[in-house]
Design goal:
Length: about 400
């Protein structure tokens, strides 16, 4: 039995650095931890003895995470919302704990398509930290970056850019170099994403200029963000058919003995789902078909496992368990297979290291009131795929246990 890294609902989704062992040919594998009954009983016992808010939050997060892992998305969200209702008023005394509740709720809201609740939960998370810690606290500044991330994800890149710039300016004024570098990288990522969307040379030149500056002029204490910028620049080079910068990064890691944890250096984005690919010409027009398919296929999920080999390449991508059909996972498999991780460090006791990763993917579609012109809530026509890293904390292939399969 393995334990997942806790709490997965609080992990940032920007860059993943997981790690661990080698395949042994086991059949179906399921990530397991404490049973739902155990976490439910713990939460009930906590509430029965009128436990302090921080203990309530911890028990709520553990149970909500367990529910999510078991595919009980609705119940997970209910657990979080009830805990928020009980503990919101304690944010002044327990700002970090209560903000964790809001952050976790934002993650689940993403996976169930509740865009408005996702947006508001991120704001509540930031506001709780700000009220309890003061606006100059670095945790508040990082939370503000998360607000920018949420605006970018919801389709408002200009707002996100303004937020990142403000965070950088305030962080520099407060002597928080790492936060400032973090905000700079986010601004560069926003520019790079826009360049990839437009395909214009001028936009690529702007993105490269921003990355070059981060690489050449890192702030003291934030030098590691220069590597992030190098990885981003290498991604642009690969888009242009030039893999030399990626190979240079790989060689640098190899020369230094390899990475001790998986570090993602390159991947393609998950391609937008084109639901018309699998249907003939006699089917309804695309928008109608997409809407019907989105409505019929949301709430599907799958846990996907794969190995990162010593050379940083991915192998043995497999569905460990799933709910519903697996056809929608095609772009997920393709994306995972494009990934390049840093070469791994070898040791005398492990001549052939490997790291086993497990990620949860959810097929969802956002709720909207603008789809029909009647303010009736309906799913958007185009489905989305959301991701959570649920890799076991020791990065080893988990023990075989019973669990739902697709």
């Amino acid at each position: 039995m393995t334990k997942t890294r806790l709490p997965i609902l609080l992990l940032a989704s920007a860059l993943a650095f997981p790690a661990a062992a080698q395949t042994n040919g086991d059949p179906e594998i399921v990530v397991t931890g404490r049973s739902l009954k155990e976490t439910a009983d713990d939460l009930a016992a906590c509430l029965a003895r009128n436990c302090p808010p921080d203990q309530d939050v911890a028990a709520s997060l553990a149970h909500a995470e367990n529910q999510l892992l078991q595919g009980d998305y609705k119940d997970s969200r209910t657990t979080l919302l009830k805990s928020i209702g009980r503990n919101r008023k304690h944010g002044d005394k327990f700002p970090v704990e209560v903000s964790d509740l809001f952050r976790a709720n934002s993650r689940v809201a993403e996976h169930v398509g509740e865009a408005k609740n996702f947006q508001l939960s991120v704001l509540d998370m930031r506001n709780t930290l700000k009220a309890g810690l003061g606006e100059k606290d670095p945790r508040v500044m990082v939370a503000q970056v998360e607000v920018g991330d949420s605006r970018a994800k919801l389709g408002f890149p200009d707002e996100a850019g303004r937020i990142y710039k403000d965070v950088e300016k305030q962080a520099l004024a407060n002597g928080q170099n790492r936060v400032a570098m973090f905000a700079r990288v986010r601004q560069a990522l926003l520019i790079q994403t826009g360049a990839e969307a437009s395909g214009l040379d001028a936009d690529y030149a702007e993105a490269r200029s921003a990355l070059d500056k981060i690489i050449a002029e890192p702030l003291a204490g934030g030098e590691d963000f220069a590597l992030v910028a190098k990885v981003m620049r290498a991604r642009m080079d690969r888009k242009k058919g030039d893999a030399s910068s990626t190979e240079a990064i790989l060689k640098d890691f190899a020369d230094k003995g390899g990475a001790t944890r998986p570090m993602l250096l390159f991947s393609e984005p998950i391609k937008r789902i084109d639901l018309t690919d699998d249907y003939g010409n006699d089917q309804p027009q695309a928008n109608t078909l997409q809407r019907l398919t989105a409505l019929n296929n949301v709430a599907k999920w799958a846990d996907v496992g794969f190995w990162i080999n010593a050379d940083g390449r991915v192998s043995d991508v497999e569905v460990l368990r799933s709910e519903g059909t697996k056809q929608w996972l095609k772009p997920v498999f393709k994306q995972i297979q494009t990934r390049v991780y840093a070469p791994l460090r070898r040791s005398d006791n492990d001549a052939s290291p490997g790291f086993y990763m497990i990620e949860r993917y959810t097929l969802t579609a956002r709720w909207t009131e603008d789809a029909t012109g009647t303010h009736m809530r309906r799913r958007e026509a185009t489905p989305r795929i959301e991701r959570l890293d649920i890799t076991p904390e020791n990065y080893q292939r988990p023990v075989v246990e019973s669990g739902p399969t697709g």
